[in-house]
């Protein structure tokens, strides 16, 4: 865990940046207060994802009754594909512009990202930009799933709750996160460290970042693991999960671990499909809304 000394700094940067506020100049003759919530997801073309988004929508409305909820999707590729299927989805910029037009004055934006990586910070810049004079009076961004130590503890509990009941303690659980070049990638190793304090046979790796599958394979071999449940640590079980985690090609995690003599049981359910994770995202709106 040589890289662990970076963690306090990274956690601080994520949290300090996430709760930002901006005032849109001096408007003595103010518009009436109108509060709104904007939920922002990466987006997905798979039907299961829409079920997850609907659940998050319901959970948000139940937690914050009387506050309008809008949605935006950051992936232009997904928005384009969905438009071809007849579903017009908004980017964060378009959704915020519409909310300005509708007269919203205070907006809490909630990222449905897992870590505060590059996409989260892009969203933060958009949030800042909409505090222009005549824009929102106040616009705040809630933290992603993993930002504070408390978030890591809650996520550890959520993961342990969603592990299939059939799994025995000497069998491994291997979680596939996305991973990134952004410094926030360190959260994955931090999460594994804290998971393993409670359950030594739960592992966290990334499809596009550290820890990579080869590192996990070595750890599983050291522990003489014979069977592993493969689970996504991504909000939606999309392309990476279906192909890179559970696919039949030689370079999928399932194939790599199977070739190493480990029996694999893939679970194709994203974190956004479980209430335990959704509750953490929804709770993160409390921070911004408390400032309105
Ligand atoms: Co990717």
Description:
This protein is α/β, with parallel strands linked by helices and 292 residues long. The chain folds into two domains: 2-145 and 275-290, Rossmann fold; 149-271, Rossmann fold (3-Layer(aba) Sandwich). It has twelve helices and eight strands. The protein has helices spanning 7-18, 47-63, 76-84, 92-101, 118-129, 149-162, 186-198, 213-222, 239-245, 253-259, 275-283, 286-290, and strands at 35-41, 68-73, 106-111, 138-142, 172-177, 202-206, 227-232, 263-266. Strands 2-1-3-4 form a four-stranded parallel β-sheet, with helices on both faces. Strands 6-5-7-8 form a four-stranded parallel β-sheet. Helix 5 links the parallel strand 3 and strand 4 (138-142). Helix 2 (47-63) crosses helix 11. The longest helix has 17 residues, at 47-63. The protein is elongated, with a radius of gyration of 20 Å. Mean pLDDT is 91; it is low at 1-28. Cobalt (II) ion binds at residues 178, 208, 240.
